[in-house]
Fold this protein.
Amino acid sequence: MRKYVIAGNWKMNKTPAETTALINEMKPLVADAKCDVVLCVPYVDIAAATAAAEGSNIKIGAENVHFKASGAYTGEVSAEMLTACGVEYVVVGHSERRQYFGETDQTVNLRTLAALNAGLKAIVCVGETLEQRELGYTETLLKYQTKMALTNVTAEQLKNVIIAYEPVWAIGTGVTATADQADEGNGYVRAAVAEMFGAEAAEEITVQYGGSMNAKNAEELLAKENVDGGLIGGASLKAEDFSIIVKAVK
Ligand code: 13P
């Protein structure tokens, strides 16, 4: 059975006090969700988020994780540190990390493995730029990024992997992929999983769409065969909008 997951990615937004207030506002609105509900928050908000979400159906995630267990890596946070704080999910390989912080397919793979080895659920992001799409590389690139990220992941660990297809041109731009483009991109990701792990594993893996998903377009996107949830940026910072997206999973 494929699981639907709606996850918020707060990016660099919200203080701890704002985190507490927003989660308290969201809790009653998403209590009857027909899908898993996750909020990925800045490291400094994790304590406030886990406390506010306790006893509710909201799970807490981080926005990145380092691949080493410990050591001289100033500014980084390990998987073990995250699990010790009650974190269950982590975003890996977001395009903003790749674009602005030099992350590569190799480091995304290492971070994914570190998360899985620590028992975290990894939300692995892939996606093409507008230039890559216009050159006709979308399928090749999505399959390549997916396979690179999942290198050395075991079939058992794959059960803790969610892949988010996030076209870079649709992130934070208000330009959403059409439902057909989202379905097609997610389909490429699923095909890559099938080539690596077989048809059954590909059928079961959760593939989210992300990129300007909002209260208005969520239902149409989520109705697509290959769209098993969403990774939501801007709209996850507003309780009502986020809850409408959660409720769009029927
Ligand atoms: P927006 O929903 O703000 O476009 O961001 C999408 C995203 O990058 C989620 O990870």
Remarks:
- The mean pLDDT is 97.
- Residues 126 and 145 are 6 Å apart (CA to CA).
- The chain is about 45% helix and 15% strand.
